[in-house]
From TrEMBL:
This is SKP1 component POZ domain-containing protein. Pfam families: Skp1_POZ. Residues 17-75 form the SKP1 component POZ domain. SMART domains: Skp1. Gene3D superfamilies: Potassium Channel Kv1.1, Chain A. Belongs to the SKP1 family. It comes from the Eukaryota. Keywords: Ubl conjugation pathway. The gene is ga14708. Residues 146-155 have a biased composition (Basic and acidic residues).
Length: 155
């Protein structure tokens, strides 16, 4: 899986693909430009010497990896060298993070493990706005077992 000299494909003009395998054995064929936004995967591609091996991600389930790949495909530089429309990308980012709480935390964890630029910041921003059961949406205050509430009762 050595990088082509032009960075846009191999000698016959096709786009170079990277195979990512999730912990639940879901296989994804991803363009190298998108896969390279996963900096952990990018380092694995470089350290692996471009041998063409599949990259298994043992801590990443298929549903989460699919969402992360969707993010990377939309954030990768177009192969034709066209400029990325930041306004359109901003709308995509807002819609992308409109997921349930479980997926949001999975995405934040994935962003951390795979070192995806931009994804943790957006996910953290969304997570900060989550309401915890029994707390106001303005200032989530989780209750901990064995600690006193404001009225002195144990939670």
């Amino acid at each position: 899986m050595a990088a082509p000299e032009s960075g846009k494909g191999n000698n016959n003009g096709t786009t170079r693909m990277v195979t990512l395998i999730s912990s639940d054995d879901v296989i994804f064929e991803v363009e190298e430009a998108a896969a390279s936004l996963l900096r952990t995967v990018h380092r694995m591609m470089i350290e692996g010497g471009g041998g063409g091996d599949d990259i298994t991600l043992p801590n990443m389930d298929g549903a989460t990896l699919s969402k992360v790949i969707e993010y990377c495909i939309n954030h990768a530089a177009p192969a034709d060298g066209a400029a990325v429309d930041s306004w359109v990308l901003g709308i995509f980012d807002m819609e992308f993070l409109n997921v349930d709480q479980s997926m949001l935390f999975s995405l934040m964890t994935a962003a951390h493990h795979l070192d995806v630029k931009g994804l943790p910041e957006g996910g953290q921003h969304e997570a900060n706005g989550l309401s915890i059961s029994g707390a106001s949406s303005g200032s989530p205050t989780p209750r901990h077992a064995g600690r006193a509430d404001g009225d002195g009762r144990r939670s």
